[in-house]
Design a protein that fits this description.
With 189 residues, the chain is of the alpha+beta class. It contains six helices and nine strands. The protein has one domain: Chalcone isomerase. Helix 3 runs antiparallel to helix 4 and helix 3 packs across helix 5 (160-171).
Length: 189
């Protein structure tokens, strides 16, 4: 009886460590670069009527405003679990549009070389299939790392300013999806 009770408690504890969004399990905590990050929020990116991906934001501590997230130092992660197949061009166009919509021409000029580096990484990934997970990780000593299903892709892209530019895709004044922004900032989607 004691073993059954212990097993039930362990199962409940595991269930409490994961959230489900659109059928996608989203971990409540993860380790990145030796630091523990917690889920700040997760939601669904939609375009027109299509569900595109489940986006999740991980930080070292919960933040509920864009300015707080952008000011937070240390490792961070944005993960995108695809709900449909996407071509490299679709990935690149969406990322570039999100950056362009949330920055001035002068800011874009300072980011251009690194935006091009990110585009090259995405082009190297090629098409991404439904259920694949793309992560954009920031490690202060390294920069921005892109992974596909946990495998690193391309070289790290330097600069915390670049990662803040990426975060503005989802959290900026003109986010790619207002409902996803609210969800990533700890609201409901």
């Amino acid at each position: 009886m004691r073993k059954v009770l212990l097993l039930l408690l362990l199962c409940c504890a595991q269930a409490a460590l994961a959230l489900e969004v659109a059928g996608v399990k989203v971990d409540e905590r993860l380790r990145l670069g030796g630091s523990e990050l917690q889920l700040n929020g997760a939601g669904i990116r939609t375009r027109l009527i299509f569900k595109v991906y489940v986006g999740a934001l991980y930080l070292s501590e919960r933040k509920f405003a864009t300015a707080e997230v952008l000011a937070l130092e240390g490792p961070k992660r944005v993960s995108m679990t695809l709900l449909r197949d996407l071509s490299a061009e679709q990935l690149i166009d969406a990322l570039e549009l999100g950056i362009r919509d949330n920055h001035t021409q002068a800011e874009l000029a300072g980011l251009r070389e690194r935006i091009d580096a990110l585009a090259a990484v995405m082009k190297g990934i090629g098409g991404a299939k439904e259920k694949m997970v793309i992560t954009l990780d920031f490690l202060p000593a390294t920069g921005t790392l892109v992974t596909l299903d946990g495998a690193p892709r391309g070289k790290p892209i330097p600069g915390e300013d670049f990662y803040r530019a990426l975060l503005r895709i989802w959290l900026g004044e003109k986010p790619v999806d207002a409902d996803l922004k609210a969800a990533m900032l700890g609201g409901k989607n």
